[in-house]
Design goal:
Mean pLDDT: 93
Order of helices and strands: EHEHEHEHEHEHEEE
Largest sheet: 5 strands, parallel
Number of helices: 6
Strand content: 25-35%
Number of domains: 2
Distance between the termini: 27 Å
Radius of gyration: 16 Å
Structural class: alpha/beta
Length: about 220
C-alpha cells in the first residue's frame, strides 16, 4: 500500500504515521497544510513548518500545501495537491472530529483513493499513555485552555507531567488529549523517526493562552 500521511508534526499525525509504518506500508510522502490565515477548521496552525525536518529524518518527500484557511476551500486546496500524487490513500490522525473525518473521506472519494484514520475514537487517556510509553517526544507548542499556564509552553511530556496533565484535565474539564484545541504539539522524536529534532523558540503568552515560535530547528540523525 502506497500512502501519504497528512502531518502537522504533532502527536496524532505522528502516531498515524507510525501505524502506517508498522503495517509495512510505503509511506511515500508527508503532506502538511500550511494555513496563512491564522486559523483553520481543519488543520493545526502552529509549528507545522517543522514537518519538513521530520521528513528529512524519514528520508521521504515533504509536500507543503498552502491555504488561507477559508472554510470549505482549504480542503479543496489539499485535494488539488493530492491529485498529483500516485498513492492508494492517505493516513491521518483524526481522533473524534466528524467534521474533519467526513471531509477527508469525501475528498478521497472524489480522488478515488482511501482515507485511513487509525486513531479514530481511541480512549483519550490511553492514547496519551501509549504515546509516552512508546517513546514519542511530545512538545507542547500552543495552549488555549483554563488550567494550563505558560509553563507548559515548550514542555516535552513525560510520564510524570502526563499525570499532572490528567489531573488538570479532570479539574478544569478539558480533553487530556487536546482534541478540543486545548493545546497543540510537535513531536521531536519517536519510534517512527531515525533521529530527533532539536529546537530553539520564543514563547508568547497573553495571560490566558499562548504559543511558541520556532526560531531554529536542527536535525540530529541516529
Amino acid at each position: 500500500m502506497r500512502v501519504a500521511v497528512l502531518s502537522s508534526g504533532g502527536k496524532d499525525s505522528s502516531a498515524a504515521y507510525w501505524w502506517a509504518k508498522c503495517k509495512g506500508w510505503d509511506v511515500a510522502y508527508l503532506v502538511t497544510v500550511t494555513v496563512s490565515g491564522g486559523d483553520s477548521h481543519m488543520f493545526q496552525v502552529p509549528g507545522v513548518a517543522a514537518v519538513q525536518y521530520q521528513a528529512q529524518l524519514a528520508g521521504i518527500p515533504w509536500i507543503n500545501v498552502q491555504t488561507e484557511g477559508i472554510q470549505e476551500e482549504e480542503i479543496d486546496d489539499l485535494q488539488d495537491a493530492l491529485k498529483e500524487l500516485h498513492i492508494d490513500g492517505i493516513v491521518s490522525g483524526a481522533l473524534r472530529s466528524d467534521y474533519q473525518k467526513s471531509r477527508l473521506e469525501r475528498m478521497c472519494h472524489k480522488l478515488g483513493i482511501i482515507s485511513w484514520t487509525p486513531l479514530w475514537h481511541q480512549s483519550p487517556q490511553q492514547h496519551m499513555i501509549d504515546l509516552v510509553d512508546n517513546g514519542f517526544g511530545i512538545m507542547i507548542t500552543g495552549v488555549s485552555t483554563e488550567g494550563m499556564d505558560d509553563s507548559w509552553l515548550g514542555h516535552t511530556i513525560s510520564k510524570q507531567s502526563l499525570t499532572k496533565l490528567k489531573q488538570l484535565s479532570e479539574k478544569y474539564r478539558f480533553n487530556v488529549d487536546g482534541e478540543g484545541g486545548e493545546y497543540e504539539t510537535l513531536v521531536l522524536f519517536g519510534p517512527h523517526m531515525d533521529g530527533q529534532l532539536e529546537v530553539e523558540y520564543q514563547s508568547h503568552w497573553d495571560g490566558i493562552r499562548g504559543h511558541i515560535d520556532l526560531s531554529k530547528i536542527d536535525v540530529v540523525s541516529n
